[in-house]
Amino acid sequence: MPYSGLSSFVSDLEKRSELHRIKTFVDPVLEIAEITDRVTKSNGKALLFENNGTNFPVLINAFGSDKRMALALNLENLDEAASEFNSLLKKISDIRGGFFSKLLSLPELIKISGYMPSKTRGKGICQQVIIRDPDLSVLPVLKCWPYDGGRFITLPMVHTINPFTGQTNTGMYRMQIIDNKTTAMHWQLHKTGANHFAAWKKSGKRMPVAVALGGDPVYTYSATAPLPENIDEYLLAGFLRKKKVKLVKCITSQLYVPSDADIVIEGYVDPSEEQFMEGPFGDHTGFYSLSDLYPKFHVTCLTHSKRAVYPATIVGVPPMEDSWLAKATEKIFLAPIKYALLPEVEDIHMPDAGVAHNLVIVKINKSYQGQGKKVINSLMGAGQMMFTKYLVVVSGMVDIRNYNDLFCHVVENTHFNSDLLFISGPLDVLDHSSDKFCLGGKLGIDATLKLKEESSTIPISNDTGKLVFPDLIADTLKKVIGRDKMINVLPEYKIAVIGLNQSGNNTSVRKTVEKLKSNLTDGSLRLILAVDHKVDLNDLSMVAWQVLGNSDPLRDITIISEKTIFVDATIKAFREGGFARRWPNVVTSEQKTIEDIDNKWDTLGLGPLITSPSLKTVGLKMEGEDEILIR
User: Fold this and answer.
1) Do 470-570 and 341-454 fall under one CATH topology?
2) 373 pLDDT exceeds 80?
3) What secondary structure, in 3-state letters, does 396-451 show?
4) Which CATH architecture has domain 470-570?
5) Residue 519 to residues 317, 462, 522, 549, Cα–Cα distance (Å)
6) Count of beta carbons in the 10 Å neighbourhood of residue 191
7) Which residues, in sequence order, are bridge partners of residue 393?
8) Which residue among 65, 244, 613, 625 sits deepest, i.e. has the most Cβ atoms within 10 Å of its Cβ?
């Protein structure tokens, strides 16, 4: 059944042994994030920090498992949502006639109309306590990482309205605390909140904004879901929870928020006001998103329920809690993609290392030549899929979540001379690898099983299976690029990973590529990946994350031979001639925080010490640069 406020969700989690209460004092500045990072990456429980210096307990890692994610969406499992959407859309597609005839003929659609959010009179649970002289310092807002620009509200549901159309939106945009009555509002260039802001700027009026925290956890997911602008987020929430969302009017504006939210922050944005230099922020890419100008949000009222819980999350080097939100999106939005856009799509997967937009794997039921490329071209412009940097399409019996089988399938079914589709297009605001802001290279890989008409005259490889003499290959590489270079050859994938220290005179990427082109033409290796010399070449998830985050496909992929490609995933700030933009540091805890939590661990009741994940990434941080690298 749906939850009414986070306190009921907390109670259910506790009954199911999915929650751990921490009664020891833990500081919202850095300490909660460090503990959560350890627990999340260890597949641990949701955490409730009851002693944090405020009257509000902090709930975090609430979505951090398949079971908790399903509970949050009022489901037995995530496949249930996919099945319901699939069934609904199939019935819609089976009915002949126009939209209205379908609406009248289909009981399921009529039933959905009962899930539309409704506006109620009076005050809601979220307004049991009303503070008309608000002070944001009463909330346990986190500072997650040492170089963050301050404390950030990380799970806000930001409510806005278009002044001309009356269309509302609920989005999730981080909010940096500026002072006790002001925050920054980080709605990015491509987001609906930014579109509404532009409309209010044209109107010449102040923009009302209301921020809800908590309530039924399905609200939080719905605010992150990649819905079209004309679809109400609370309709999706109602469909998932099988109960309409009741909305109540704010105290100081005409906006409506969920009646059972835990906390509501009301206020306005003045479009004529000078903007605030927000950030940096340790982001879900695993790198700091750099400082930039964003509007100020002025708080006029703060309300909350009597049993309010403050929800939070942290993001950083994957995997993190947001990985499970992405899993839910894979399941829920497969059916709409299949029925509205591409009926051949069988499955979609966004691996953790790709941090949502950097890598998307699509499996299709292939029936004609060129179909893989058709899917690539269709998805590269579809909604938020337009931000995808690497898009891989496969077909056949391959399991796209078994990375060993998947990669072997891609290697065996990709002709570099015909199956790589390079384009330039829009990128996510947080992408740091491209030469231009929000614009860069993309790569579609057609790794589908090839039909007769698609067969290349150049065989993919002279042999099948793994490399026979990996040590010999490694030795050959060392002879070519230098004995001092770090090299890891993966024979089962026909891949070599090399670590380059660009501080030397003969270690530039350009010179390395020239040597490889002259000396490695036999095609024994299919893929050569270059990363910074500080990366652990044996940690393939870390290598994948670095490659996907630090490369621009158009700029950084070089054809070494007809059968071998080279990907430059090194730090571009160190390349010859420098880099046109600021290059961010890796997100990692500082040594003092790690030691403080190590010393406090036995008081937390979390069992044996879990070592800090930052110990794996701290070596990647560039010393002497707090925020960015500049060459």
Assistant:
1) yes
2) yes
3) CCCCCCCHHHHHHHHHHCCCCCCCEEEEEEECCCCCCCCCECCEEEEEEEEECCCC
4) 3-Layer(aba) Sandwich (3.40)
5) 36, 18, 9, 28
6) 20
7) 362, 446
8) 613
Instruction: For residue 150, give the DSSP letter.
Output: S
- Residue 479, sorted as left (phi over 0), alpha (psi -120 to 50) or beta, turns out to be alpha
In the predicted structure, residue 629 carries a pLDDT above the cut 70 = no
**Catalytic residue, candidates 216, 232, 283, 431:** 283
Tokens of 73: 């969406």
What per-residue confidence (pLDDT) applies to 108? 54
d(CA 123, CA 118): 14
Q: How far apart are CA 224 and CA 135, in angstroms?
A: 27
Distance separating alpha carbons of residues 162 and 199, to the nearest angstrom = 7
CATH number for the region 66-76+114-311 comes to 2.30.110.10
In the block, which residue shows the tokens 């987001």?
191
Active site residue 12: no
**CA 489 to CA 626: how far, in whole Å?**
34
Average pLDDT over residues 397-426: 92
From the centroid of its chain, how far is CA 305?
30
Distance of alpha carbon 376 from alpha carbon 426, whole angstroms: 15
SS3 21: strand
Structure tokens given for 624: 């002497």
Alpha-helical runs (H) found in 74-177: 78-94, 99-105, 107-113
φ/ψ of residue 297, rounded to 5: -110, 120
CATH architecture of 341-454: 3-Layer(aba) Sandwich (3.40)
Average pLDDT for the chain:
88
CB 170 within 8 Å of CB 215: no
Tens-digit pLDDT profile for residues 194-221: 899 999 999 999 999 999 999 999 999 9
The answer to whether 467 and 489 are in contact (CB under 8 A) is yes
Model confidence band, residue 189 (pLDDT cutoffs 50, 70, 90): confident
Q: What one-letter code names the amino acid at 362?
A: V
Closest CA to 314 of 607, 58, 74, 70: 58
Q: What is the pTM of this model?
A: 0.91
**How long a stretch of residues is the chain?**
631
Residue 579 phi, psi (nearest 5): -135, 145
In DSSP terms, which residues pair with 258 in a beta bridge?
Answer: 247
C-beta of residue 260 within 8 angstroms of C-beta of residue 237: no
The residue type found at 626 is D
Angle at 233 between CA 231 and CA 238, to 5 degrees: 110
Q: Give the domain ranges of the chain.
A: 66-76+114-311, 341-454, 470-570, 591-629
Tokens found for residue 167: 């269309």
Q: Which of the four pLDDT bands, split at 50, 70 and 90, describes residue 93? A: low
| Residue pair 277/156 in contact by the 8 Å Cβ criterion | no
